[in-house]
Amino acid sequence: MSLLVTQKMTEKLTKREIQNWIAKIGRMEYEEMAVMWRFAPSGHPCFNMDYPQIHDAFRERFNNYFNGMRADISKHVGFDRSKWVGKYGIKAEE
Q1: What's the rounded mean pLDDT across residues 32-61?
Q2: Is the CB of residue 48 less than 8 Å from the CB of residue 55?
Q3: What's this model's pTM, rounded to 2 decimal places?
Q4: Which burial class, exposed, middle or buried, applies to 78 when counting CB atoms under 10 A from its CB (0-12, 13-18, 19+)?
Q5: Buried b / exposed e across 44-55, counting CB within 10 Å, b at 16+?
């Protein structure tokens, strides 16, 4: 189960949860990171500067390991959120 589903974004993360996110980022595939980059909700831990360690780990892996949002993955991910609902913790827009 995705950490996104289990963690309310209004709650502060514990040190253990931060470490869990960093470890999860280290295991993420390119598609998952690209989908999160495009569709993760505002305040998501990977893009929340309240958690710079998580943000930096995500940015480092996505940009330096996978070379960021390249045209091929951007086209694959697309802009239709409904294609990804239920995968990688992406929820339908409310």
Answers
A1: 95
A2: yes
A3: 0.84
A4: exposed
A5: bbbbeeebeebb
